[in-house]
């Protein structure tokens, strides 16, 4: 008898809108803060309208650099999507820095993170089981049985 198991991984979709203003790329992310509550979560970033068709994702970096929760970002061949996985086994906050390029630009100019004051998306890890620990340390009612 075969035991069919569902894929337990949850996917979070983030809409990314990028506009070019001169030599600057102005990006917005929806949501800006990605709350992750499930283990083995996949996070998918996709360029969305009204992003011009010739703008693509150039690279993505993770801060802090030496962390063990997020996988190496994978950018699709057409540059329109980026996917990573989140183990979400320990609480933490991670910032992502995206750089963009015009796919017709052979120079592939890479802007330094923060140069244009862009708010980059943030991932907040909230692993399963940590909610009850956090709730128990809060100001809520305490359930201490007699004894």
Question: Strand content of the residues, in percent?
Answer: 35-45%
Structural class, by secondary structure, is: mainly beta
Order of helices and strands: EEEEEEEEEH
The overall pLDDT average reads 81
Text of the CATH class: Mainly Beta
Tally the helices.
1
Give the tally of structural domains. 1
Instruction: Report the end-to-end length measured between terminal Cα atoms.
Output: 48 Å
- Report the helical percentage: under 10%
Task: Draw up the topology in text.
Blueprint: E1 11-21, E2 24-30, E3 33-36, E4 41-47, E5 55-63, E6 74-75, E7 81-86, E8 92-102, E9 122-125, H1 130-136
Parallel strand pairs: 1-4, 3-9
Antiparallel strand pairs: 1-2, 4-7, 5-8, 6-7, 8-9
Question: Can you describe this structure?
Answer:
There is one protein chain. With 147 residues, the protein is mainly beta. The chain contains one helix and nine strands; from the N terminus they run E-E-E-E-E-E-E-E-E-H. The chain has one domain: Cupredoxins -  blue copper proteins (Immunoglobulin-like, Sandwich). The strands form two sheets. Strands 2-1-4-7-6 form a five-stranded mixed sheet, with no helix packed on it. A four-stranded mixed sheet has the order 3-9-8-5, with no helix packed on it. A hairpin with a 2-residue loop joins strand 1 and strand 2. The longest helix is centred in the C-terminal third of the chain and has 7 residues. It is elongated. The termini are far apart. The N terminus and C terminus are likely disordered.
């Amino acid at each position: 008898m075969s035991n069919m198991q569902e894929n337990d991984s949850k996917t979070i979709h983030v809409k990314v809108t990028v506009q070019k203003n001169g030599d600057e790329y102005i990006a917005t992310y929806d949501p800006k803060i990605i709350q992750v509550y499930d283990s083995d979560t996949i996070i998918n970033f996709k360029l969305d309208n009204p992003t011009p068709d010739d703008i693509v994702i150039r690279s993505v970096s993770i801060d802090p650099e030496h962390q063990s929760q997020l996988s190496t970002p994978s950018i699709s061949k057409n540059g329109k999507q980026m996917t990573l996985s989140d183990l979400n086994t320990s609480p933490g906050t991670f910032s992502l820095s995206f750089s963009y390029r015009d796919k017709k630009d052979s120079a592939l100019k890479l802007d330094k993170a923060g140069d244009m004051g862009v708010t980059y998306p943030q991932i907040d890890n909230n692993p399963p089981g940590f909610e009850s620990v956090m709730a128990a340390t809060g100001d809520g009612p305490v359930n201490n049985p007699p004894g």
